[in-house]
Design a protein that fits this description.
The complex is a heterodimer of chains A (147) and B (144). Chain A is mostly beta strands. Helices cover 13% and strands 37% of the residues of chain A. In chain A, strands 1-3-4-5-2 form a 5-stranded antiparallel sheet, with no helix packed on it. The chains are: A mainly beta (147), B alpha+beta (144).
């Protein structure tokens, strides 16, 4: 039997968040917290001679951005508990100091999988991130598993 | 400066890693501060972890994902990550030593852009797969 929910919620924007300008110190702090040693993310001078012509954020920086509203008010619930089921990140352009990022969030997909332990329900929240020029920076799909 | 990895030098079946990491409570606290995780106390405290049904505080999945990303960056010198898809299967607990590795599963030119596909695994010290995933990489020169 197909999973029953109001399919009109798919693709509906439930949050738009504008972030303050990205600070160089924030990029460096993020890289340091990861133990990152790549000079593209840690050394402004060396990064100047790199492929981006300057310091950029480590690629997973975009996963640290959180919308004001983490989930829609009427997000369907299919189980008693929820788990972080994973992330899909598609990266289009690097994040640079001074960028003003905007995130638009939607419920991208809802599906069911059945395993040995029974049914699991996945809700995919999609965050699309652009910069001040409207340039696409990344798309991050956050899978929440419910059971 | 390391020489960029050439497309011709990449073969399907080439292994990436393994790389070992042991994220500790201090590692998690540093990461949490950088990404501003303030709630979700099961990432930090034993009591909160137990209340969430965990035996020990766990490592945020995105931190483990970032380790995968670092492994790829170290291997694919001169390449950039186009996409990274990860599935979190089993939590990694503070102090667990995890092994990260990958394998190149496909290489081809897409619209003239050399493109490499990899399968990725993060395994805990009990041999359980904590994360499985895939990644796609392209040379920096293809930067839009």
């Amino acid at each position: 039997m197909a999973l029953e929910f109001d399919r009109s919620i798919l693709g509906q924007v439930f949050d738009e968040t504008d972030f303050p300008p990205v600070e160089k110190a924030d990029l460096l702090r993020f890289a340091a917290a990861l133990g990152e040693t790549n000079p593209l993310y840690t050394d402004e001078e060396a990064a100047t001679n790199g492929p981006y012509g300057g310091l950029v954020a480590a690629p997973t920086y975009v996963t640290r951005l959180r919308p004001k509203k983490m989930a829609p008010e009427h997000m369907p619930r299919f189980g008693k508990v929820g788990f972080d089921g994973g992330r899909d990140v598609e990266i289009f352009s690097p994040v640079r100091p001074g960028d003003r990022l905007k995130m638009v969030s939607t419920i991208h997909d809802i599906y069911e999988k059945t395993g040995r332990s029974g049914s699991m329900y996945f809700i995919v929240l999609r965050n699309e991130i652009t910069n001040q020029d409207g340039q696409k920076i990344a798309v991050v799909d956050h899978r929440i598993m419910q059971r | 400066m390391q020489q960029p990895l050439s497309f011709d030098a990449i073969e399907i079946g080439d292994e990436i890693g393994p790389v070992w990491k042991t994220p500790t409570k201090e590692t998690v606290l540093r990461y949490a501060e950088a990404v501003r995780i303030t709630g979700l106390k099961f990432f930090f405290h034993q009591k909160d972890a137990e209340q969430a049904g965990l035996t020990r505080p766990i490592v945020p999945g995105p931190l483990n994902t970032t380790y995968l990303c670092q492994m790829l960056k170290d291997f694919f010198v001169g390449w950039r990550l186009r996409s990274l898809n990860t599935t979190f299967r089993t939590p990694v607990r503070h102090g667990d030593t995890i092994a990260l590795w990958g394998m190149i599963t496909e290489k081809n030119e897409e619209d003239g852009v050399p493109t490499v596909y990899c399968d990725l695994v993060v395994e805990n010290e009990h041999g359980e797969r904590a994360i499985t995933g895939t990644a796609v990489l392209v040379p920096y020169a293809s930067q839009p």
